[in-house]
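Hi team,

Below is the intake form for H(+)/Cl(-) exchange transporter ClcA from Kolteria novifilia. Please confirm the fields before the structure is written into the shared record.

FORM ID: S-0412
PROTEIN: H(+)/Cl(-) exchange transporter ClcA
ORGANISM: Kolteria novifilia
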Amino acid sequence: MPIQNEPLLSSGPKPLGHFTLGVLAFVVGVLSGFGAVAFRALVDLSHNLFFLGTCSFTPLMDQPPQSVWGIGIILAPVVGAVIVSFIVTSFAPEARGSGVPQVMKAIYYHEGRIRPLVAIFKALASSITIGSGGSAGREGPIMQIGASLGSALGQVPSMTASQRISLIAAGAAGGIAATFNAPIAGVCFAVELLLPSITATTLLPVAISTTIATLIGRYYFGLHPTFYIPALEGAPTVYTGPYQLAVYLMFGLALGLLCSVFVRSIYWVTRKTEGISGNYYLRHCSAMLLVGIVLYLVHLWQGRFYVQGVGYAAIEDVLRGGLTSPWLLLVLVVVKLVVTALTLGSGASGGIFSPCIFLGAMSGGALGFFLQALFPDAGFQPTIFAMAGIAGMVGGATGALLTSIIIVFEMTQNLDFVQPAILTVAAAYTVRKTFSYENVYTHGMKQQGTPLAEGLESGFVLSFRARDFMTDEFFLAPIDSLVTTWPPNKRLAIIIDNGLVRGVLHYAPTLVENCKDLSFASLDGEHSVSVDADASVAEVQQRMASGSARIALVTKRKRNRSSDVIIGVVDDQQLMSLRGRVAQLQ
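The structure came back. Fields below:
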C-alpha cells in the first residue's frame, strides 16, 4: 500500500462571509451588465460591417436593406466562419456552441472554474457569427460571458466551490437580466439551469447581480420592454373561454414536436459534419456557405433577410402586424430551423435562445392569423399566440419552464400572455420530453459523456456537505500501539505517526486475530486524502478521484488551535448510503 505523509491540517478553502460574497456579487453584476452592453455593440458593429460595409455601432432596428455586396452576401457567413474557426481552434475551444452547456460543465465537472479569456473570445466569436448572418442568438454568449466573469472574480479570493458556482450563476443571470430587461427571468434562469442547490445563500449573489445588471442595461437600452406591442394597449383580451384555452393546449402539443425536431436537428447536423472528411475549417465553412445561399434566396424572394442573425426585427414585424401571412410565417419556421441547425450544428459560436424565440413567434403568429381569418368574431389575437409560442418554444426546448413564462411577461410588460403561456409551455415540454428526453443544452453533453444530474439528484445530493454524511466510526491509532487495542464499534483505524497520517485500515476480525501481537507500524494502511467539513459531495468525490483514494478524512479547524483535526471519514459506504437516501425520495 502506498504511504501517505499528510498532516492532519489539510482543509480546503474556507467559505467567505455573506457580506464579502454580496460585495463580489455586486461587482459581478456590474461586469455582466457592461459585458452585455459591450457584446451587443460588437454584434451591431459586426452586422454593419458584413451587410452594409460600414464601421458603425448603430443598431439596425428594422430589417436590413439591400446589402451593398449584392449576390456576394452569400460569402459573408463563410468569411465569418473562417474567423470564428480561427478563434475557436487557436484560442478558446469553449467559445464554440451556445455557451450554456459549457457553463454547466464548468459547474458540475470543474468546480466552477472557467478561463477568464473565454469572455473575450466568446464575445468576438459570437458577435462575428451573428453579425455575418449566422442564425444564432446573443443571449447564450452574453450568459457565458457573464458566467466567465463571475468565475474569474471567484478565483481571486479563496472561497468554496459552491460560492464560486453562485458567482457564476450570478454572472449568467446578470447577462440575461441586462439584455432582456428581465431581472426576475434572470434569477429563474439561474435557478432552473445552473444552481445545483437552491438556498438563501446561493440566491443572494444572483439577486444582487441581476438587480445591478438590470440597472445598467436600462441605462443603455432604455426602460421600454424588449417587445413593444402598441396594438394591445387598451384593447380587451378575450382568450379565457374553454375553447380558446383548448386551442392553446393543442398548440403547445404541436409546438412540443417542433421543439423535439429542433433539438435533434442541431445534433444531427453536428454528427453529420463531424463525419465529413476534412478539418473544422472546411466543415464549418461548407455549412455556412449553405446558410449564405439560403439568406440570399430569402432576400431575393421577400426583399428581407428574415432568418439571419437573432431575427428580432422579423419577430417585431409579427407582433406589430407587419407579417400576417400564415403561409409565409410557416415557411420562415422551416427555413429558420434549417439555417439554425446548419449554423450551430457545424460548430458556430452563438446562442439558442433567440432562434427559439423566432420559431415560437412565427409558429404562434401563423396559427393566430390563420384562426383570425377563419373565425373573425371568435376573438383570436395573433399577438398572444405569438407570445405563447415564444414561451412554449423556449420552455420546451431548454427545459426552463418558469423562465420562459416569466420572460414573456417581462419582455412585454403585459400579463395577458401569462395564462396562455402556461398552458402552451406545459404541453410543449411534455411532448418534447416524450420524444427527446434531453433538452437542447444537455443533449450534446450526454453524447460527450458528461451527463448532468437532474432534480433531486442534483439539488438534494449536492446540497450535502462532508460533515452531513461522514462517519465517526474511527479512532486514531498511534503507530506503535498494538492492533489488539482496536476499540469495539470502530470500523476504521487511522494510523498516526508524529502527527502525520500514515494510512487507514478497515476493521476485519481476521486482521485483529492474526495480528494481535503486532503493532500498527507493521501494517500498511490504505491511502487517503483530506477534505474540509464544508466540502460538497462533488468536491469530495473529485478530491478522492484526483488522489486515487477510496477514503477521505474530514477535517475541521478547532478554535484556539493552529491545526485542523479529523472529525470524520468518508468512504464508499458513506457515498452508497447517500445515494440510497436520494433513491428513497425519488
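SUMMARY LINE: The domain at 18-227 is CATH 1.10.3080.10 (Clc chloride channel).

Thanks, M.
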